[in-house]
Design goal:
This protein is mainly alpha-helical and about 260 residues long. The protein has one domain. It has a two-stranded antiparallel sheet with strand order 1-2. The chain is globular and about 55 Å long.
């Protein structure tokens, strides 16, 4: 995947992004309660989703930008609901419409960010991947090593506050490395954004866990044997994508012009 990020021409890269996001949408629709038992309905639904995904790639840049901003705001609202989920929402079953909208919140900004940012520079996407991966890896090992207070026991019992702090430190270290290597301006903004991205990536993981709990599934699918589905692997990355795009717009884009 990393090799393709640098080697594929933009249109082929966009086709790959669209294909991955279509499969991810299929998983999210299953988590929303769609069984896909009727072949004709399944084809119609997935065709509609595919058309939406392709349309997102060719929207005017200004429209894409406002969609990203709206998604950032929506994720902040989701975080407030995840806090409430500790005591209230986890006992309730969200309607199918709400689960579809939450699934769209994963997919829509990811299509735009990954589908368009490679044209600016594949290094920008590599930086995003490294931030989220570092946050995940540090969170896992720090959480595993220290343990302690649970972060969201009613949603994801294995997550701890120590793991969250470890993930934030990991994101800070990677962000500092990119700032030094590329001599980026506004380092305070980038470091602050790295902390926010680490937090949002955890929110993405928790939201995916909550959606799976709604339909009593451990994994989003079995597309990746031994690793679950695409949502299981990409939830943190998809949640972080719009906030990363916002950071690039404010702090990095002036360097690319």
């Amino acid at each position: 995947m990393l090799l393709m990020l640098f080697l594929l021409p933009p249109h082929w890269w966009q086709a790959l992004v669209a294909a991955v996001m279509l499969l991810t949408s299929w998983e999210l629709l299953r988590l929303a309660g769609y069984s896909f038992a009727n072949t004709a309905s399944a084809v119609l639904l997935l065709t509609t989703v595919a058309l939406v995904i392709v349309s997102l790639l060719y929207l005017p840049a200004a429209w894409q930008w406002w969609i990203i901003v709206a998604c950032c705001g929506s994720w902040l609202l989701v975080i407030t609901q995840l806090v409430r989920a500790q005591t209230v929402i986890h006992r309730q079953c969200w309607s199918r419409a709400i689960r579809v909208l939450l699934g769209a919140l994963f997919v829509v900004p990811t299509v735009i960010v990954f589908g368009t940012m490679q044209t600016d520079s594949p290094w920008l996407l590599l930086a995003l991947l490294s931030l989220v991966w570092a946050a995940d890896v540090f969170a896992y090992f720090v959480g595993k090593g220290i343990g302690g207070i649970k972060l969201a026991s009613n949603i994801s019992p294995n997550k701890t506050v120590a793991g969250l702090i470890g993930g934030m430190l990991g994101a800070l270290l990677i962000a500092a490395g990119w700032i030094w290597y590329l001599q980026l301006p506004r380092p305070w903004l980038i470091l602050t954004a790295a902390l926010i991205i680490a937090l949002i990536s955890v929110a993405g993981d928790l939201l995916a866990s909550l959606l799976k709990r709604q339909v009593q599934r451990k994994d989003s699918s079995s597309l990746l044997p031994g690793h679950g589905g695409l949502v299981d692997r990409l939830d943190s990355l998809m949640a972080a994508a719009p906030f990363y795009a916002l950071t690039v717009k404010l702090a990095v884009s002036p360097m690319l012009q």
